[in-house]
Write a structure and sequence with these properties.
about 325 residues; five-stranded mixed beta sheet; two-stranded antiparallel sheet; elongated; disordered N terminus
Length: about 325
């Protein structure tokens, strides 16, 4: 018998006797029949169950590999340290090629630093621990980036940033050096070239701002006894005012006369002046002269690079020319 009356379904919809009769006619589903999804093969169900078991397996932490991690740190820090050493020592170390037209030792040092950092990257990526791999990998990446970018800028500076502008030296070997009357760092007036002495080394340097000039002057100051023994008296000339020459002499602890030609009475006729378009003061273009006792030029050194200067040994080797 079909019950009469009104019923509400699970959604609150009134159930009429007609709807109840239709529900009674639907086939009943046994609970055991829904264990296996309809239309799905048993093999697929078993494969899915196997995957679930694999994903639910306990995570095993990989070993840290301390030796590999320490080696990675060693190569990374070693490469970056070598790079910093090259940058810091190049400006005051002949072994880094400061006197060379192309400083190959410094370039080889930066290349070796990059190789060490790349070895550190390879070791870092081989660490099994994901956290250690991430930390060491990032450290190695930043070290390689610093060495690569900084090394490229260093090479660009040494090859392009230190080039002198085109100039023509209006003096050659056998000519008499022009006369001058210039004040030194103490304000005392020096007239030259001096006659009667065995010879004179005239150094034209860019100015107190140039690190290569400072290093060259410090070397000449330290080797003054040897130069005087070879019969060479040293005089350095720049376009700096007297006040800056005085500061430079105090910084170097040098008693070499640093003559100021800020009016360019000597440097301009020689063709050794560099003009700037941005309003900066002019500076001298480096040059080296050895004069005999009569003021005649016996030896000249110039370069297309402002950082390329003769070593003290090269100057001492040319000193006998002043007595010829």
């Amino acid at each position: 018998m079909i019950a009469t009356g009104w019923y509400k379904g699970s959604r609150g919809v009134p159930m009429t006797p007609l709807r109840l009769s239709r529900l009674a006619e639907l086939p009943k589903i046994v609970p055991e029949e829904i264990d296996e999804p309809l239309g799905v093969q048993a093999e697929i169900v078993e494969a899915e169950a196997l995957l679930v078991e694999q994903f639910e397996a306990t995570w095993v932490t990989p070993p840290f590999q301390p030796i590999r991690a320490v080696l990675a740190l060693f190569f990374i820090t070693g490469g970056f340290g070598l790079y910093e050493y090259v940058l810091l020592s190049f400006w005051s170390s002949p072994t880094m090629g400061i006197h060379d037209r192309i400083p190959y030792p410094a370039y080889f040092g930066i290349g070796a630093a990059m190789v060490l950092c790349l070895i550190g990257v390879r070791l870092a990526l081989g660490v099994w621990s994901p956290h250690a791999k991430l930390a060491l990998g990032l450290l190695a990446f930043f070290a390689c980036a610093a060495v690569g970018i900084g090394g490229g800028r260093f090479v660009s500076y040494t090859l392009r940033g230190t080039r002198n502008p085109p100039f023509t030296l209006n003096l050659k070997v056998g000519d008499r050096f022009p006369g001058y009357a210039l004040p030194d760092q103490t304000g005392a007036l020096h007239q030259g070239p001096e006659h009667g002495s065995d010879g004179t080394l005239v150094v034209i340097y860019r100015g107190d701002f140039d690190p290569f000039a400072r290093y060259e002057l410090s070397e000449l100051t330290a080797r003054q006894p040897e130069l005087l023994k070879r019969g060479l008296k040293t005089v350095a000339i720049s376009a700096d005012p007297v006040a800056r020459s005085k500061m430079l002499a105090g910084f170097l602890g040098s008693d070499v006369p640093l003559l100021s030609d800020d009016k360019e009475t000597l440097l301009r006729p020689l063709g050794l002046i560099q003009h700037h378009r941005d309003g900066e003061p002019d500076n001298a273009i480096p040059a080296f002269f050895i004069l005999d006792r009569d003021g005649v030029v016996r030896w000249i050194f110039t370069s297309s690079y402002s950082r390329e200067m003769p070593s003290t040994e090269k100057i001492l080797a040319a000193a006998p020319l002043a007595s010829q």
